[in-house]
Amino acid sequence: MVLIETEVHYAASHTAKVCAQKAVVQQPQNARGVFFSIYEGGSLCENLIDGGKRGISIHSTLLEGEQLQIKAAYTLKVPVPFFSGLRFRKKTTVKRRIFSGYVKHWGEYEEAGDNQIVYVAENGVVYHKDSSCSHICLKITGSAAIQEVLHSSKYAACEKCIKKGKNPSALFVTAYGDCYHSTLGCSGLKRTIKAVKLKDVGNMRPCSRCASGR
Fold first, then answer.
1. Residues 175, 179, 180, 185, CA torsion sign
2. pLDDT tens per residue, range 24-82
3. What's the rounded Cα separation, in Å, for the pair 75 and 52?
């Protein structure tokens, strides 16, 4: 269930980013298309989400202050022997400012408050505003690129999420890790990234990619 929630939130976050950049704000069908082009689903989704991948509803809303809100709602089902099973209604909401060509300066990020949550990679020297920033978690697709990682001396297979003999359709790696993963929600992957308050990052500087909204 935790893996499902993590993967749906990841897809919703990227959907908000893409739609905000392209100003796709009042066209729900476009937001759904973007979401399902990112969210791969899979057997876990089919088993634990009521209706499978098709059971996830996506809503996009334009809020005041030029913010786009993406909401993903679905029902988790937990099989229980001899019973009809338990069901939990879940939703994840992501807000993203519509991109207008203006990028905030560092001083304006400070005004947002020292209690905002940022993300730090193990042994990293910068902090990230977005937990899915490609500088801390890179998604690798395409058979040639995947084969290059599989045969690389830098990365080894994660014992938690890589099953022997299986060929994953995508891999996830971090700049400071030494394993490759088949799912974004793998606990082995998450240990390399910490969520901390901005006031606790010390002398770390902001990531040049996600701090500017790229």
1. negative
2. 444 545 788 888 888 877 787 888 888 888 899 998 887 765 778 889 999 988 877 76
3. 9
Residue ranges of the chain assigned to CATH 3.30.46: 2-97
Q: Please tell me the distance from the alpha carbon of residue 33 to that of residue 24, in angstroms, as a whole number.
A: 11
List the structure tokens of 91.
Answer: 């939703």
Cα torsion 58, 141, 158, 192: sign: negative
Q: Is 44 helix (H, G, I), strand (E, B) or coil?
A: helix
Helix (H, G, I), strand (E, B) or coil at 34: helix
Q: Helix, strand or coil for residue 170? A: strand
The amino acid at residue 180 is Y
User: Token pair of 93, please?
Assistant: 């909401």
Q: Decide: 133 and 207 in contact? Cβ < 8 Å.
A: yes
pLDDT tens digits for range 79-113: 777 666 688 899 999 888 776 554 444 444 444 45
DSSP state of 98: P
In this structure, CATH architecture of domain 2-97: 2-Layer Sandwich (3.30)
